[in-house]
Amino acid sequence: MLGNIFQQVYFQNRIIDYLMALLIFIIASLTIRFLKNFSIKILEGLAGKKGTKIDKRFVDAFQDRIKPFINLLYFAAFYFSFYQLKIPIIIESYFNIIIIALFIFYTVKSIISIFSYFLENYWIKKEKDGTRITALRGIETFLKIMVWSIAFIVFLDNLGVQISALLAGLGIGGIAIALASQNILGDLFSYFIIFFDRPFEIGDFLSIDNFSGTIESIGIKTTRIRSLGGEELIFSNTNLVNSRLRNYKRMKKRRVSFNFGVTQQTSLEQLKEIPDILNNILQEISGASLDRAHFSAFGDYGLIFEVVYYVNSRDYNQYMDIQQEINLRLKEELEKRSIKFAYPTQTVLLSQ
Question: Mind listing the pLDDT tens digit for each residue in 82-105?
Fold first, then answer.
């Protein structure tokens, strides 16, 4: 009697078929739940140990981010269990539409969840600049729109909609728009180059051709620089990316080279003393170190010395203070030895 009940047919399927489909779904769901809880238990165990990078926050984030993927697995379990049954063609067609929509939805949610997790934990948390954090949020939103747009096109294609003509029209329209806004798109891509490559950041002091100043803001199209004179300089991002920049803020130490001359009447013994004088001066000045000092050339008006030293800082004011100290000390030492600086002179020889 019980066997006859199981063999009764409703909507082209026996009761035993419905029970088998339900049993498959229950077993698959329990398996998914077990694997989820087992994975969380392992992570919680690792979080409780010392010396691991996994902590309670990581476990909580894992549980939150894995939800779309778990829903996708539950959906797959329902899909395979349901397809054990025979269903009318009309119902099957509508059911396929729902299946495709749900599959695409949960797949996209899973992809976006994984991407957002890595973006939040490996980029945004390490950023201290509010402007860059805002830009990262904008990039995240842009990528989400792109992924959902692609998913929608895939959904229409699976429904049998002829999207080739639509894509062709969008492609032609996109080419026309790209040609009309070529400079804007160039600046936009240059912005992404600046953002990811980081040749400079807000607060850096740059020298571009004959212009120099401090970066105040980096926009999608333009970058604004405050010059030493106080005026605001506006450069397109493409112009900056294609230019040769000097970023003085990232300079660890400054190399300085300068020349000076002494008169032709300076004796040989005095010329030999001058490199030692410079060496002693640089040793007594904090934050600077001498590289070399040489009697380099015979000039038109005097004997030329070349001096090269390093300032162990990128601060321009400190460099000028050190240079001033060198100049004052050098003049003092040369005056003590009656050595005179060279200056343009002419000697007239009269023949009798």
Answer: 777 776 667 667 777 777 787 788
Phi, psi of 304 (to 5 degrees): -95, 130
pLDDT at 126: 61
Longest Cα–Cα distance of the chain, Å, equals: 151
CA–CA separation, 272 and 268 (whole Å): 6
Residues in the chain: 352
- CA 116 and chain centroid, separation: 16
Helix, strand or coil, per DSSP, at residue 151: helix
CB contact at 8 A, 66 and 31: no
Rounded to 5 degrees, φ, ψ at 54 are: -90, 125
* Token pair 């797959």: residue: 76
CATH code for the structural domain at 254-336: 3.30.70.100
DSSP 19-68: HHHHHHHHHHHHHHHHHHHHHHHHHHHHHTSTT-S--HHHHHHHHHHTHH
* pLDDT tens track for 271-294: 999 999 999 999 999 889 999 999
CATH 2.30.30.60 is right for the domain spanning 193-250: yes
Can you tell me the distance from the alpha carbon of 230 to that of 145, in angstroms, rounded to the nearest whole number?
41
Run means of pLDDT, 10 residues per run, the chain, 352 residues? 62 73 85 84 72 63 70 78 71 74 78 74 61 66 80 76 62 55 71 80 85 85 87 88 84 90 92 94 91 92 93 88 95 93 79 72
pTM for this entry:
0.51
Going from N- to C-terminal start, the domains of the chain cover 2-122, 193-250, 254-336
**What gap in Å lies between CA 313 and CA 319, rounded to an integer?**
8
Residue recorded with tokens 């895939």: 154
pLDDT of res. 135: 65
Helices (H), the chain: 2-6, 15-47, 56-65, 67-82, 89-122, 130-158, 164-180, 182-197, 237-241, 268-284, 316-336
Q: Do domains 193-250 and 254-336 have the same CATH topology?
A: no
Handedness of CA 310, 316, 322, 326 (dihedral sign): positive
